[in-house]
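Sequence decides. Consider this:

===
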Amino acid sequence: MKKSNLITGILYVLFGVTCFIAALLIKTKLEGILWGFAGAGIFPGIMMICKYFYWSSPKNKVRYEERLENERIEMHDELKTKVRDRAGRYTYSLGLLVICFSRDRRKFCVIDEPRQYENLRLSQE
C-alpha cells in the first residue's frame, strides 16, 4: 500500500482528536458539528491505518497485488464504463427535472436563520 494512505489516516485521526477535544472544552452552538467531525475523523482514520498495516504485511502483499490488478481491470472495462456514465447522466437529468418541476422550490433553498421565515406559508392553498 502507498505511504500516502497511512499519512491520510494519521491526519484524519489527528483532525478527529482535535475536534473531540474542542467539543469537550468549548460550549457553543457548533458543539454538535464538532462531535460529528470528531467521529467522522477518528473512525475512518483508524480504519485507514489498520488497512495500511494489514495490506502491507508480507503475508498479504501477494493478495493485495492481485486485488489491485482485478480492480484495475474492472475500472477500465469498456462496457462497465459506458453503463456507469449512462447511469450518472440519467441520475443527473432526473434530479434536475425533480428540482425544476417541484411545486414549491423554497424547500430546496438554504435558510440562514430559521426564524427569519417563521410567518412564511410553505403550502399553497
